[in-house]
Amino acid sequence: MKCSRRTLLKTGALSGLSLACFPNNASVAKAAYQTHAGKIVEKIPTICGLCKASCPMLALKGKYGYVRLTGNPRSPIHAGTLCARGMAAVQLLDDPDRLKYPLKRVGPRGQGAWKRITWDEAVAEIAGQIKKAHAAFGPESLALLCGSSSTAFIRKFYEGISCPHIYDSSQMHSAAIRELGYGTVFGQVPDPAFLPELERADCLVLMGCHIGENNQVSQLKQVCDFLNRGSELVVVDPRFSAMAAKADHYLAIRPGTDTALILGWIHYILAQGLYDPLLGDQVVGLEELREAVSTYTLDRTAELTNIPVDSIRRAVQTMVDAGPRTVIMPGSHLSWYGADVDRVRAQAILSALLGSWPSRSMQKFDFAAQRKSLSFADIINQIGTKKIKVTAIWGQNPLQSEMAPYKTITALKDAEFVFACDVLPSESTLYADIILPEASFLERMDDLHTWDIGAQTMTGCCFPVVEPGHECRDPYQIVKDIAEGSGQGKLFPAKRIHNYLDDALTKQGSSLDSLKKARGLLLKNKEKRGGELQEPARLEDTGESISFAADIAETGMDFPTPSGKIEFHSAWLAHNGFSPVPVYEPPATAPDGFLRLLYGRCPAHSQTRTAGFTWLNHEVPENVLWLAESLAGQLGITDGEEVRLENRDGFRSLKRIKVKVTPGIREDCCYMTHGFGNRSPFIRDAYLRGVSDSALMSRGKVDVVSGTRGMRDTFVRLLRGGNGS
Ligand code: SF4
To answer: How remote is the CA of residue 71 from the centroid of ligand 1, in Å?
Structure first.
């Protein structure tokens, strides 16, 4: 039987959620799949496109055309597993709410009135607008708001025409801050999705990292292995998170004071002489650092962070005892309170003092390529004032991923021309003049993906599991057509995506055929001078920890910083007008009667990207508001009661949210998961399910180094009864 799109789901429905949410039922689901699907006749390698982790998948096609998704066992870091979202992704193929044809707006922006047009008409209009704006006003008149696994080619296009306004939400809120924080200390940047050194660590420090709630398979697997070894876990979080429940040291910190805590730990290590004395020769700025942390005594740190002195001391002593085998998780979502690069720099410096900068295989930080880009708020301002003439929204939903969505809506309504490309009609697409339907990741090929997995690299790409449904197209073809229409065809010389990928792989000494034969993943040993494998030098299988400084001296390794050393004091930052050593800035304080709103991830959803997945919604239908038991008692609020939220600028949640009364959160904050409260009525299963956190965020301090706005300075009050209607 040919693979019918309609039959795809039947077995998936049985297998996807069972495997994802009830792992013990995996064999039951597998048996159910085999009964319905018949013998597996094809295994197609692909890559999950639902989050940054990009897990390698196999699509198993049964004799009768059913498809089930499973992890690709060839990946050494994923162990053949997927999370619930990845397994449920088969639902995308038959989602009745998918964008099916190119659409042109026929009513006011935001209303959702469309007419169907042809691809030729859609491409001609978009390419014409880009060409006209570029010729008359230059590349500054264009903007691209993007994010998702399909954005590689549209980014190449906008970079190729020198557009300075390319804004990728997930990049800005995580990688951009991490790169500046670690890069200015070590000249290298870790990737939290897989840390080779965690394989043999004795102590793990998580600061505001919600692993297990923020699911990335390779990372979660590494952390589970770490916990199974019985090693020491330090968790710093105002909320008793899933990881806090496993911690040996849980520090319920006052929100926004993490930098003070790290500076306090650094002060303690320096004052007690607990670092490797040889390190002094390998770093720049030890004395400047000593001066910068001089006031962060244990007592003052305790006062600032609201953590007892003993807990602060015990936690740092645990790290010192584990020494180079301490890993401080670099973190993913890092835009918290404004001075976020300083916080991440302080984390990197603490790692160096512990001697725990192990892997030399990290991505290099490109000092020369750093340039100041416009913040999201500035881009939105330029869209609303028509300085930016053409706005592209690609695989991104800025009305949920960025704060102040009502300002964004106003700007998009006033914009000159907007086009969007996506798989589902998110609320941001409602403001576009033209919408392009993109093939889902199971129907397309994306650019090559490379994972750094320690001593090896792994390269893979998506192979389409089925042909694109309806009139959906793959992103390479869409971008190539737009580029040609706007006179920039030379940027995409390959005729089809297959040719593009084959050319790229040939340059690496391989081919698309070889990649497919290798079950979609090419593993390659990394080499360094002399042809040896590049292993983390200090964490060898012997279990011996080698002195960090001695190791640097022994290998003669320079760090790729301007000085060639680890930089506690960064002349590069000073030259660019920023503080050369990390500085703690106290967070904004809550007005009377308001609580700080904290947010995190839900393991069953990839922000709003999976909001319409009915299986996932069945498991986690909406978010809830965590409220401290003691505070709920004072306010007379009971568990399960529904309240409306109002922020300090008077913005209210569109609907009520259920309160979860718990001892697991501090009294000065409340918490909800992100990714709910979708406002697009065209994604029916997600429409107004739960409450949107970003819709309550109307203010936030901009981090001066990265230009990203912190999202945790939102204060809300709870409206009950008549007030909450
Ligand atoms: S962690 Fe889950 S959603 Fe993310 S890429 Fe892997 S399977 Fe997909």
So the answer is: 10
Ligand 1 pocket, residue 716 CB under 6 Å: no
Residue of the nearest CA to atom 8 in ligand 1?
Answer: 86
Q: Name the nearest CA neighbour of 69 among 17, 121, 141.
A: 17
Determine the average pLDDT of the residues in 57-65.
Answer: 86
633 contacts: CB under 8 Å, gap ≥ 6: none
CATH architecture of 595-724: Beta Barrel (2.40)
By DSSP bridging, strand 232-236 and strand 417-422 are unpaired
> If we measure between CA atoms, which residue out of 423, 421, 426 comes closest to residue 436?
421
Tens of pLDDT, residue by residue over 689-721, are 999 999 999 999 999 999 999 999 999 999 997
Ligand 1 pocket, residue 89 CB under 6 Å: no
C-alpha 233/C-alpha 250 separation (Å) is 8
Which ligand 1 atom minimizes the distance to the CA of 216? 1
Q: What are the tens digits of pLDDT across the range 94-127?
A: 899 999 999 999 999 999 999 999 999 999 999 9
Handedness of CA 428, 434, 439, 444 (dihedral sign): negative
Inter-CA distances, 61 with 39, 65, 489, 520, Å: 9, 6, 37, 16
- b or e along 52-79 (b: 16 or more beta carbons within 10 Å of the residue's beta carbon)? bbbbbbbbbbbebbbbbbbbbebbebbe
CATH code for the part of the protein at 173-367: 3.40.228.10
Rounded to whole angstroms, how far apart are CA atoms 657 and 33? 37
Contact, 527 vs 533, CB < 8 A? yes
pLDDT in tens, 263-273: 999 999 999 99
Q: Give the single-character DSSP code of 520.
A: T
3-state secondary structure string across 270-299: HHCCCCCHHHHHHEECHHHHHHHCCCCCHH
**Ligand 1 atom at minimum distance from 215 CA:** 1
CATH number of the domain located at residue range(s) 8-94 in this protein: 2.20.25.90
What does the domain layout of the chain look like in residue ranges?
8-94, 173-367, 595-724
CA distance 286 to 273: 12
Contact 419, 433 (CB under 8 A): yes
Q: Positive or negative CA dihedral for 243, 245, 249, 252?
A: positive
CA nearest to 402, candidates 424, 373, 374, 376: 376
3-class DSSP state of 119: helix
Tokens of 304: 């600032």
Q: pLDDT of 425-474, one tens digit each? A: 999 999 999 999 999 999 999 999 999 887 788 999 999 999 998 999 99
What is the whole-number distance in angstroms between the Cα of residue 51 and the centre of ligand 1? Answer: 5
| Separation of alpha carbons 12 and 68, rounded Å | 6
Q: Which of 356, 355, 349 is nearest to 292 (CA)?
A: 349
Segment 305-340, tens digit of pLDDT: 999 999 999 999 999 999 989 999 999 999 999 999
pLDDT tier at 30 (50, 70, 90 boundaries)? low
pLDDT at position 542 is: 38
Any ligand 1 atom below 6 A from CB of 86: yes
Q: What angle do CA 267, 271, 273 make, to 5 degrees?
A: 120
Residue 397 Cα to ligand 1 middle (Å): 19
